[in-house]
User: Fold this.
Amino acid sequence: MIKKSRKSEVGNQKRLVVFFLVSILFILESCYSFTGSSLSPETKTIQIREFPNNSALMNPNLSQQFSTDIQNRFLQRSGLKGTTEKPDILIEGEITNYSITPTTISSSVNAPGGNIQAAQNKLTITVKVHYENSVEPEKSFDKTYSDEAAFSSDLDINAIETSQVKVVNERIINKIFNDIVANW
Assistant:
């Protein structure tokens, strides 16, 4: 008899703990939105203009790829609707730097004259962003974002432009999205 009531008491305690944790979760959820968005509920629309490539080194696909990727990110993950007239949020800018530079040098000891070549290169992309929030103007800003990716010098330029550019674009877009939507 004593064992049975003790098991019953332990079961009741477990149910009480679960009930308490679930209650706390509901209380916290009502105080904070788990979407992580810091945008005002009145913010409904967004316009993202094309980011022209104004860098010295031209990648013919960079402007379109970056512009499409940033538009997709905001439209798919923010809940905002795209518009071309009187947007609550306007994002525009330009690509100011696209460069590929050597980072690691290697030399062939057996080669006459010590043949020196790049063993690793670095792709750098810099984007200047103008963010305008008409609902909360104090959150508007102008900021420059930059990121890079290192890659083997053995890679073909076409392989770099399809893989590494995508990686760097993704990182820059994450930073922009977090600064605007998540406000981290």
